[in-house]
Amino acid sequence: MSNYKRCNDEVNNDVPPLILEKSTELCSLADAKFARVTYDEVESSGPAAAPLGFPAPRGKRIFIILMFQKRHCAVIVIYCTLTLTFSGVIYGTVNRSRIIRGSCRSASSTSKWSSESILLLPDRNEHGYKLGITLRQTLCGYVLKCETVTKASATEKTYVEEDLLMQKNESNLWVQSGECVAIKIDRRQSMKRLHDKNSTVTNPENPWKEVAALQLMKNEHPNVIKLLGAFIDEECLYEVMPYCSGGTLNEYVRHHQNGISETEARHIFVQIILGLYHIHSHGICHHDISADNVMIDGNDLKCVLIDFGMCLRVPHSYPDDSGATDDTTDESMGTTRRLIHSHNHCGKLRYMAPEVYSKKYAFDGLAADIWSAGVVLFNLITGRQPFERPDINDPGFFDLVDETFYWDKEAVNPMMSWGREVSSELVDILMIMLKSDPRVRATLSQIMKHGWLSIH
Ligand SMILES: Nc1ncnc2c1ncn2[C@@H]1O[C@H](COP(=O)(O)OP(=O)(O)O)[C@@H](O)[C@H]1O
Ligand SMILES: [Mg+2]
């Protein structure tokens, strides 16, 4: 290992140094069972199984009572609707659109009113979100940048003579808070089409699953996106999340032609690993880790994992089961996880683990995420993708799995073919994560204890 030349990492004063507590945190967490378990142990814990379903979003039930006249008798119709509240998450079914038109202006009393679309919060009609620009189109809809608004108070209803728009609309005036959120809006019709039972193609992408997974993880980790609220109306599912102002990691890396410095890459990668650890500790594999699904939030390169539409809930053996049966349970029993049956993959081939791509074998969901995180690290360091698809006919993939190529330990600068001179520790961590055989791929525990992460 020490055959490599040690690279002098570039100094970038804009990046906060990796603080000591972060590496201490990594080492103290690394011994958890789920992070240590090897592929062989997973394989011998029982036959491969289907992923578990997610628990339905939890909360409280409310009833809306509608009254109407029929032949002089008041007939009461009880319209049952489900509104759920759970760890700050609202999940509601309503029988009309939550989007209205209203007049908005910023908190400054001198600013003008403008006509905007506003998404009303269920059972809090004084609060809403002003819909803003489209950040991205998605499979079933789009992601919007929005701003929280509250109904204007009497004192905020000041206006100038010529501000006619406001005068016409006095009961529907909203003041912007300046606080931004991202709202992922999925059309329910499109979602239904993706999961149509009569269709021959089942799509693993499922926005409901994203809501369920984020609720299961309870908004507890700084490196995993929070779900501030989720609700539906007759047309759409709305997921409200904190707005990450720095764009995606992919966009960030594209500004650096030959990749970013090791110091910066380490700062980002540690956060990805801590986020992944949190997800895995809940018995979930993300299944779509990529530089597009890591958001940068703020100026200090804080990283947040997003996009849980493809995640899987990993099956585990029952404690008293010697591994012989097909019955499985979740991670809460503390048993060893099972391999997951191969299934229709859908996701980014550039990040997909070879065993998932091949569709021939069952796979360990957690090991597949580690492969994808390895590709992200490669991408950070070189500014490029190592391969287009994890297929032996792909020249990039062929070189990656050929240990005599750029992983050659005798080479002075093994990554020079990618235009980078990097430390031996970095070459080693990339090499152990990007093992095409998941049996010999590093576990999360090995990664968390790796020397490259504790360099300051
Ligand atoms: N919280 C957020 N803050 C800012 N932009 C976001 C946020 N969530 C998503 N986006 C933007 O929307 C894109 C798509 O969101 P994502 O959840 O990854 O959906 P998809 O399943 O379509 O990939 C992201 O790549 C990012 O550009
Ligand atoms: Mg995405």
From TrEMBL:
It comes from Cyclotella atomus. One of its GO terms (molecular function) is ATP binding. InterPro entries: Kinase-like_dom_sf, Prot_kinase_dom, Tyr_kinase_AS. The keyword Ubl conjugation does not apply. Keywords: ATP-binding, Kinase, Membrane, Nucleotide-binding, Serine/threonine-protein kinase, Transferase, Transmembrane, Transmembrane helix. PROSITE patterns: PROTEIN_KINASE_DOM (PS50011), PROTEIN_KINASE_TYR (PS00109). Signal peptide: none annotated. This is Protein kinase domain-containing protein. It comes from the Eukaryota. Residues 129-453 form the Protein kinase domain. PANTHER family: SERINE/THREONINE-PROTEIN KINASE PLK, SERINE_THREONINE-PROTEIN KINASE PLK4.
